[in-house]
Design goal:
The N terminus is likely disordered. Strand 2 and strand 3 form a beta hairpin. The radius of gyration is 15 Å and the shape is elongated. With about 130 residues, it is α+β, with helices and mostly antiparallel strands. It has one domain. The protein starts with about 25 loop residues before the first strand and ends with a strand. A 5-stranded antiparallel β-sheet has the order 1-2-3-4-5.
């Protein structure tokens, strides 16, 4: 298992301006499952810093890889953008809103975060396969 740092190992849609080499901080609240089908799971949690972490694991990724994992870490200061992007009010929790709108967010997390105007850090890891 290795952390990605070489461009040749990045996902097919790189997000170089957001790439980090370490996992997000320890988690505090959650997880809630946004998607779980055919070996691909996406979930969301809040970390101890109050940031939203949307993570994924694909056990059937393309290119003969064994496994692909990723995480988007959205700072607490941008949670209002997430809430607004999901038409929530200040009374709605971020995790409840994400659970209620999973079909909107889960198919394309990066695109949805970009459309909501949220800043984020992105981490990913590819486990090369032996298929």
């Amino acid at each position: 298992m290795s952390t990605l740092s070489e461009p040749s190992h990045r996902a097919s849609t790189p997000v170089d301006d957001h790439q980090v080499d370490e996992l997000p901080d320890a988690l505090d609240s959650g997880p809630i499952t946004l998607y779980h089908r055919d070996g691909h799971r996406i979930w969301a949690e809040l970390n101890t810093e109050g940031a939203l972490v949307i993570s994924g694991q694909d056990l059937n990724p393309p290119h003969g890889w064994e496994e692909y994992e990723y995480a988007f870490s959205i700072p607490a200061g941008d949670l209002q953008r997430i809430r607004a992007g999901l038409d929530g009010t200040h009374d709605d929790t971020i995790l409840d809103l994400l659970a209620a709108n999973a079909e909107v967010v889960a198919p394309a997390v990066k695109s949805w975060l970009d459309a909501a105007g949220a800043s984020y850090k992105f981490w990913n890891r590819i486990e090369p396969g032996h298929r």
